[in-house]
From TrEMBL:
Pfam family of the protein (one): AAA_18
Identification of the protein by name: DNA topology modulation protein FlaR
Phylogenetic classification of the source organism: Bacteria, Bacillati, Bacillota, Bacilli, Bacillales
SUPFAM superfamilies: P-loop containing nucleoside triphosphate hydrolases
Source taxon at top rank: Bacteria
InterPro entries with a match to the protein in the record: Cytidylate_Kinase-2 (IPR052922), P-loop_NTPase (IPR027417)
Transmembrane segments: none
C-alpha cells in the first residue's frame, strides 16, 4: 500500500488490538497526522478531563475528516463517528485473538503503573477492570454491529488478525 494512494485511514478494533500503535507507525512512516477518537470525546486538561458535548465532538471530528490526509483510530463506531468511515480511503479493522488483547491490556497496565508507558488518563485499577469489560463487549457487540452497520464499505475494509497480516498490509 502506497501512502500516495491512501491518505485517509480509519482504524478500529477493541482495546488492546493495536490501534494506537498502528496509527503512530503510519503517521511517522507516511507523514500523515493521526488522531485518537478518545481525544475527540475528551478534552484533556491537567486539572482533569472534560467530556465534550455532542456538538463539540461532532464539530471537531468533522473538521478532522475534512482535511486532506489523516489516520483516525478509535473503537467508536457510533453514529457520530460515521463520517470517519465514509470519508476513509481504507478502514483497517484490527482483530487479534481475544487472548492476545487480554495479554496486551495486562501488559499495558503494568508498564503504565511502572511509568514506562504514558497514558492520557489516570491509570487506576477501576479503569484496568473496565478494559476487560470493554474488550468483552466489543467482541460480543461492537464487532458484529460494526460489520452490520458499515456493510456498505466492505470494499474498503481490511481485517487484520495477526502481525503477519499487519506487515503484509504495511509493506505490500
Amino acid at each position: 500500500m502506497q501512502a500516495s494512494a491512501v491518505k485517509r485511514i480509519r482504524i478500529i478494533g477493541s482495546v488492546g488490538s493495536g490501534k494506537t500503535t498502528l496509527a503512530r507507525s503510519l503517521s511517522e512512516e507516511w507523514g500523515i497526522p493521526y488522531y485518537e477518537l478518545d481525544n475527540v470525546v475528551w478534552e484533556r486538561n491537567p486539572a482533569g478531563d472534560r467530556r465534550r458535548t455532542e456538538e463539540e465532538r461532532t464539530e471537531l471530528l468533522d473538521t478532522l475528516i475534512k482535511s486532506e490526509a489523516w489516520v483516525i483510530e478509535g473503537v467508536h463506531n457510533e453514529e457520530w463517528a460515521a463520517g470517519s468511515f465514509r470519508e476513509a480511503d481504507v478502514i483497517v479493522f484490527l482483530d487479534p485473538a481475544y487472548s492476545v488483547r487480554t495479554y496486551r491490556i495486562i501488559k499495558r497496565f503494568i508498564l503504565q503503573k511502572l511509568g514506562r508507558e504514558t497514558a492520557h488518563y489516570e491509570v487506576t485499577y477501576r479503569i484496568f477492570l473496565k478494559m476487560f469489560k470493554w474488550n468483552k463487549y466489543f467482541e460480543q457487540n461492537g464487532k458484529p454491529n460494526f460489520f452490520k452497520n458499515y456493510a456498505l464499505y466492505t470494499d474498503k475494509i481490511i481485517v487484520l488478525k495477526n502481525k503477519s497480516q499487519l506487515k503484509q498490509f504495511l509493506y505490500q
